[in-house]
């Protein structure tokens, strides 16, 4: 019966009926943003100057940026923590209701579920789905990838992070001061 309900929702999508996919696209973006900042955090802590300095001496601009980021570790880590926190909060704010709404629309086709239980069950399942996605895709995968090659990752993420800090630096400095 549940499979039938899922297929009914998918048929609606296939027929072009209105479905709001924007929250799910935003969830993907927020998972990527969270993963970016997690990778940055672990790359900053795990990178060795001795591996980046020869590359920087040879003119590798990304290695030069990575070393510059390592020189202001406290601000860089605070910026990463701000990015992780904001992405995580937005992920919960947008993700749980999006998945709960989808599950609710599927569950309404399952006659064996009491109608009064559909919303709370959908909310719990939606929260579990978003927590799982956040933990695995937004935290563990970027962490594990970064721990194997921290210098390479730092060379990649230090450029975009530099742009982020152009805007966020004042807030990051204030937060870091309070910390």
Characterization of the model:
The protein is mostly helical. It has one domain. It has seven helices and no strands. It has helices at 2-14, 22-46, 49-57, 61-71, 73-107, 115-148, 150-178. Helix 5 packs antiparallel against helix 6 (115-148) and helix 5 (73-107) packs across helix 7. It is elongated. The model has no long low-confidence stretch (mean pLDDT 89).
List low-pLDDT spans.
none
Amino-to-carboxy terminus distance: 53 Å
What class do helices, strands and sheet pairing give? Answer: mainly alpha
Q: Please, what is the average pLDDT?
A: 89
- H/E element string? HHHHHHH
Helix proportion: over 70%
Could you tell me the number of beta strands?
0
The number of helices is 7
Shape: elongated
Largest sheet: none
What is the count of structural domains?
1
Put the structure in a nutshell:
The protein is 87% helix and 0% strand.
How is the topology of this model organized?
Elements: H1 2-14, H2 22-46, H3 49-57, H4 61-71, H5 73-107, H6 115-148, H7 150-178
Helix pairs in contact: 2-5, 2-6, 2-7, 3-4, 4-7, 5-6, 5-7, 6-7
Question: Descriptors for this entry?
Answer:
mainly alpha, 179 residues
